Amino acid sequence: MSVVESACLTRYELRCNECGKSYGNRPQSACDDCLAPLEVHYDLESVRGRFTRESVAAGPANIWRYKELLPIPAGFQPDLPVGFTPLVRAKRLGERIGSNNLFVKNDSVCFPTLSFKDRVVSIALANAQAFGFDVVGCSSTGNLANSVAAQAARLGLKACILVPADLESAKILNTQVYGARLVRIDGNYDHVNRLCTLIADEYNWGFVNVNLRPYYAEGSKTVGYEIAEQLGWRLPDNVVCPMAGGSLIRKIKKAFDELVALGLVEAKPVKFFGAQATGCSPISTAVKNGRQEIEPQRPLTIARSLAIGNPADGPAAAKLIQSTGGYAEDVSDVEVVAGIQELAETEGIFTETAGGVTTAVTAKLIAQGRIGADELTVVCITGNGLKTTDALEGRFQAERSVKPRLAEFDAYLREVDGSLVNVSAAAAEDLALAGGRR
Amino acid sequence: MSVKVTLPTALARHTDGQKTFSSDARNLPGLLAEFDAKFPALAQNVKDDSGNLRKFINVYVNDEDIRFLGGDTHQFEDGDEVMLIPSIAGGRCGQRRFLTLPYDESLLEGC
């Protein structure tokens, strides 16, 4: 069966999460009646027996192996090998923070732009083309900008991308290089996002996280499918997930629920844990106060990719976390940097600030006893450290050069050994603030 | 005293297509009361069963989220721009171009 034929067989449509009103398929993200978010609903019965462990295994080694459960229009020919990133056992990080059963889902190496946003953008742009948009865009804290710019270039679409003016320089360069129009807005992400909603209201453009948001968000489900498949078609005990807008954590849960409904994995309780930076923690604050209502915050953190003070899916994320028996925590910027270094030094994974948040929050949750040492815990690392090297500015100094002689090299080692030890000791001390073991 | 109120297109269907209009309201509760009187369909759309603004609508006064300004107690000033935006906004059917082929056409009915 061709890709085109199989895609036609899965029925899906937009429905309001609150009042249940159906909208068919269109570029729209909020219900006309109650203004609640719209979400893609599938007729799971239409894929029962067709979406199996065997059919998935026969698919390509990328997110398109799950195409039956993704909202991709008929006629769309996937050609980018997005996703299917490594799920790695994290024994050394686990030893450091007190877990015997820790895994890292490593989206810092997602194709093509090194963040999990590649997943959502590929789904959004498939729909943007089907809806006939010539121009696509997004409001972004950086990773989304990179991915929209790159994938729009490959599809021959024009891209207009709006970002906060103070975004990390690497994320700006990684957007401009693809030829996208990048507009820096004086304000934080929430200002940028509000402007994009106004633009989408006036211009006939496809904003991936505004009017295409319901389709876009479904791409995050592939993180959940992959975790389950890579664990040998079973679900973990715990998932620790960074939270910005609050969408990813919900979609991983949705993916698990769909796999259970279709009989690919056995049902089991999975606790969902959310991670934020203290300088922008509207969702973790709500969870810690036992509430679902979100009080907006003005972000002030180095974890800019998580700096959304008024998260669109915040209430739903808080509700999900509470309903699964999970929790949410937040960590300081010092702990964020320590988290980046710990993950790099123990597992060889260089993540961006958001990954530092997630690593440090995981350490904190284990120290609090909320995550048990033997429970199978998956930590979602969503972005690459090469994009936020600013966060490590001044952390490492270039050593003096050495003459090409063995004696000089020996002398050099004796000279610097102490300082190398000191760097590791400093990182361990910072992580201890988040609960990590010395 | 007068403030300029701006609505998204999705809500302008309740105001005969007017996306902006002037209001004498002095605060947010006053503005909602004005909706009751002038645009009852709009009031029904933006208020929940308890008469409060629906949780999915954000209100901005001169680019600032009203929740940072004191919410219902914040007093508007002459010339303020008050904007109502759904928290997840964007998208309307009227101006969109569709390629009907990719989707089951029955799902597009009423669009």
How is this structure best summarized?
The complex is a heterodimer of chains A (438) and B (111). Chain A has 438 residues and is of the alpha/beta class.
Please tell me about this protein's structure:
- With 438 residues, chain A is of the alpha/beta class.
- Chain A folds into two domains: 3-79 and 117-216, 3-Layer(aba) Sandwich (Rossmann fold); 87-114 and 220-391, Rossmann fold, CATH 3.40.50.1100.
- Chain A has helices at 3-9, 53-57, 91-97, 117-130, 143-155, 169-176, 189-202, 213-218, 221-230, 247-261, 282-288, 314-323, 333-347, 353-367, 406-433; strands spanning 12-16, 22-24, 38-42, 87-89, 102-106, 135-139, 158-164, 181-185, 206-207, 238-242, 271-277, 328-331, 377-381.
- A six-stranded mixed sheet of chain A has the order 4-5-13-10-11-12, sandwiched between helices.
- In chain A, helix 5 packs parallel to helix 6 (169-176), helix 10 (247-261) crosses helix 12 and helix 13 (333-347) crosses helix 14.
- Chain B is an alpha+beta fold and 111 residues long.
- Chain B is 20% helix and 19% strand.
- In chain B, helix 2 (28-38) crosses helix 3 (40-46).
- Residues 90-111 of chain B have low confidence and may be disordered.
- Classes of the chains: A alpha/beta (438), B alpha+beta (111).
- Chain A binds chain B through residues 11, 13, 18, 24-30, 32-37, 73-76, 130-132, 187, 190-191, 194, 196-198, 200-201, 204, 207, 210-211, 213, 293, 295-296, 298, 310, 312-313, 315, and chain B through 8-10, 45-46, 54-58, 60, 63, 65, 67-68, 85-93, 95-99, 101-104, 106-111.
